[in-house]
Amino acid sequence: MKPRLKPTNPNFSSGPCAKRPGYDVANLDISTLGRSHRSSIGKLALGRACSDTATLLGLPDSYRIGVVPASDTGAVEMILWSVLGARPVDVCAWESFGRGWLTDVVKQLKLSDVSTHVADYGLLPDLTKTNPDHDIVFTWNGTTSGVKVPNADWISDDRKGLTICDATSAVFAMQLPWDKLDVVTYSWQKVLGGEGAHGMLILSPRAVERLESYTPNWPLPKIFRMTTSGKLIEGIFRGETINTPSMLCVADYLDAIDWVASIGGLDSAIAKSEANLEVIKSFVAQRSWIHFLAQQADQISNTSVCLTLDLEPEQIKKIVKLLDSEAVAFDIGAYRDAPAGLRIWCGATVEQSNVEALMPWLDWAYSQV
């Protein structure tokens, strides 16, 4: 039977993601619009994007965080091009974006001393085989596979290399062990439901030391340069951006982090995401035709929840179209490079009641194909 109750917000896209509950663009503080990002009011807003985020995430005082161009992709590229080449590199990849970083390291930077740790969709490679003397590049949460790193026990406290972590769909939804991570990147558009085009770059003191002591053999474009005369450009980590940001997007981001603070901070945001996953876990456990793409229970992502169905790819596409046409769930088809299936975003800005309302519709859509 066709369900009557629909999600009040059918936006389950894995990026850009749903805006926070109660969001209204008319309520944004747009006093910075039309002003220079280098004006006092512009610097204050951008500085708060850095300092308030650091407070919410509980970053160590010695860590830097800055707003950088081109979303999470830009943040990752900045650091790969700036610090790699000083040591051998281990690259871990188990979904599309990790494989993209592997391509950059091998085919664009053309580094020769590279070890790869690769797994198919649904699995993690054996991360314990990474070498702590090497720089290690990995994603914390595979946005296109729904497979996350369950812990950082495999990262040595006595490592010589840097750990470079693309955590775009993990920050504000999963606990991250900052002492194990030297570089962390994410974008505003994921867990916080912000807008695209802006990334965040978090650096440990060890990462800063590398930036100040190592010069790569290749030229760096202006938007990648974080040092001058061998010293870190500290202004980047106070909101003095390399290029011109969208101040409207900044206002939107500040609204998002203010919302996180208002619901109780990081722990509350994580709890909301985990509660959303529990709804789907319960649904899957009671049905034989739907499964998590992640093969290990402790590796199931609580943000980008990827599911496989006992159907042909064309049938799955019909389900996606049916749910879209009913305005029940938008943009939940699997990523183009991933196995056919569904991908339901369960980050903190998605209300549990909407995930609950979606589940009967999955039953109905399955019965229609």
TrEMBL record:
Biochemical pathway: Amino-acid biosynthesis; L-serine biosynthesis; L-serine from 3-phospho-D-glycerate: step 2/3
InterPro entries linked: Pser_aminoTfrase, Pser_aminoTfrase_methanosarc, PyrdxlP-dep_Trfase, PyrdxlP-dep_Trfase_major, PyrdxlP-dep_Trfase_small
One of the GO BP terms on file: L-serine biosynthetic process
Reaction equations catalysed: O-phospho-L-serine + 2-oxoglutarate = 3-phosphooxypyruvate + L-glutamate
Domain of life: Bacteria
GO molecular function: alanine-glyoxylate transaminase activity; L-serine-pyruvate transaminase activity; O-phospho-L-serine:2-oxoglutarate aminotransferase activity
First-level EC class: transferase
Cofactor(s) named in the record: pyridoxal 5'-phosphate
UniProt entry keywords in alphabetical sequence: Amino-acid biosynthesis, Aminotransferase, Cytoplasm, Pyridoxal phosphate, Serine biosynthesis, Transferase
Enzyme Commission number(s) from the entry: 2.6.1.52
Family statement drawn from the similarity comment of this UniProt entry: Belongs to the class-V pyridoxal-phosphate-dependent aminotransferase family. SerC subfamily.
Protein name, as recorded: phosphoserine transaminase
Organism: SAR92 bacterium BACL26 MAG-121220-bin70
